[in-house]
Amino acid sequence: MRERREVAERIRHFRHQRGLSQERLAEAIGRDRQTVGLWERAVTPPTVDDLSALAQALQVQTWRLFYG
C-alpha cells in the first residue's frame, strides 16, 4: 500500500510541476479525470500501459514514477 501511495504522490507532483490539471493529463493519456483522481488518491493503481503513458505526458522517465 505504501508503494501505491508513493506512486500516487509522484503522479500528482509531476502533474503540478508541468502545470497540468487532472483533466488535461487525462486527455493527454486517453483516460478520464476521475481515473486520474483515483490514481492520485491511491484508490486504484495505474496499469503498466497507463504508467508508460503518464511518463510520456509528464515528460519523465517511467522509473521516476516509482523512485522519484
What does this entry look like structurally?
The protein has helices at 2-17, 22-29, 33-40, 48-58, 62-67. Helix 2 (22-29) packs across helix 3. With 68 residues, the chain is mostly helical. It has one domain (2-67): lambda repressor-like DNA-binding domains (434 Repressor (Amino-terminal Domain), Orthogonal Bundle).
CATH architecture: Orthogonal Bundle
Multimeric organization: single chain
Structural class: mainly alpha
Q: Using only CA atoms, what is the Rg?
A: 10 Å
Strand content: under 5%
CATH topology tier name: 434 Repressor (Amino-terminal Domain)
The CATH class label is Mainly Alpha
Distance between the termini: 17 Å
Largest sheet: none
Helix content: over 70%
Helical stretch tally: 5
Question: Residue ranges: pLDDT <50 for 5 or more in a row?
Answer: none
Q: CATH superfamily name?
A: lambda repressor-like DNA-binding domains
- Let me know the average pLDDT: 97
Query: H/E series, N to C?
Result: HHHHH
Number of strands: 0
Layout of SSEs?
Elements: H1 2-17, H2 22-29, H3 33-40, H4 48-58, H5 62-67
Helix pairs in contact: 2-3
Quick synopsis:
This protein is mainly α and 68 residues long. It has 5 helices and no strands. Helix 2 packs across helix 3 (33-40).
